[in-house]
Amino acid sequence: MLLLERCEMGRFSSSRRVPVSLRRSPKKANSRTPVFDVQLYLASAGPGRKLEKFRREETVFAQGDPATNVMYIQEGAVNLTVVNEIGREAVVAILGPGDFFGEGCLAGQSICTATARATTPTTVLVTEKDEMIRALHEEYALSDRFIAYLLKRNKRVEEDLIDHLFNSIEKRLARTLLLLAGYGKQNKPEKIVPTVSQEMLAEMIGTTRTRVNLFMNKFRKLGFIEYGSRRRVLQINKSLLSVVLRG
Q: I need a labelling partner for 202 at 20 to 30 A (CA). Which of 150, 173, 175, 193 fits?
């Protein structure tokens, strides 16, 4: 009984403390290992990566070129186009700030399967394959950012396929315009530089320029979009979403 009492007293005794040698010391604020800044890494040049500026319509890389770099768009816009054996060209993607491209080299792709061309003055971070592999392995914040982007783009590809299979030309055009405008990223309407021509829109949604022109005029009359010969931008209004949601 006496032994039990001593044990109970010892449980709550203030003398029962964790030895100093086993205590976890808090991390020092001035730790020698610097915190990796993803945004800084993607915004600046360094070992194995450089910043390059491209003029409007300048080629970043061409279909068939060696695939050796991963690109990240800091500002501007880039079109990815593919040409088949008979010379027909199709736009497969329109990319903007925050987008990666050229990542196929990480999966063993030896040549570029598309042509990347700047549609506006564009700044791109060009990262060598080996440096990108190193950074993805060592910097979890960067790999998380990169994987999240790939998953998001894969989801977009699936949605594009469903869109082409089941939706009308009118709905496909409305959805494409909303995506180009960055719908959902901010509250106010986005303005699009008119380098996104009707021919390009036709290629993206799988129709003719004549049909695109027909629906663009319809959208303008209904107030869904705003453009004209004197306007240097194409404005997409949120009301265009009603076309996509229509049964």
A: 150
Residue with tokens 């061309």: 117
Q: Name which of 72, 77, 73 is nearest 132 in CA terms.
A: 72
Q: pTM of the full predicted structure?
A: 0.74
**Cα of 151 vs its chain's centroid, Å:** 10
**pLDDT tens by residue, 20-54:** 433 444 444 455 667 889 999 999 999 999 999 99
CATH T-level assignment (fold) for domain 168-245: Arc Repressor Mutant, subunit A (1.10.10)
DSSP-based three-state secondary structure for 91:
strand
Query: Is 38-162 a domain of CATH 3.40.50.170?
Result: no
d(CA 60, CA 120): 12
CA distance 198 to 195: 9
Angstrom distance (rounded) from CA 102 to CA 113? 9
* Total Cβ atoms within 10 A of residue 212: 23
The amino acid sitting at 243 is V
Cβ–Cβ under 8 Å, residues 49 and 124: no
- Long-range CB contact pairs, 160-169, < 8 A, 24+: 164/205, 164/206, 169/205, 169/207, 169/211, 169/215
Per DSSP, the three-state class of 48 is: coil
pLDDT tens, position by position, 169-203: 999 999 989 888 877 665 555 666 556 788 888 88
Return phi, psi of residue 230, to 5°. Answer: -90, -15
Domain ranges of the chain: 38-162, 168-245
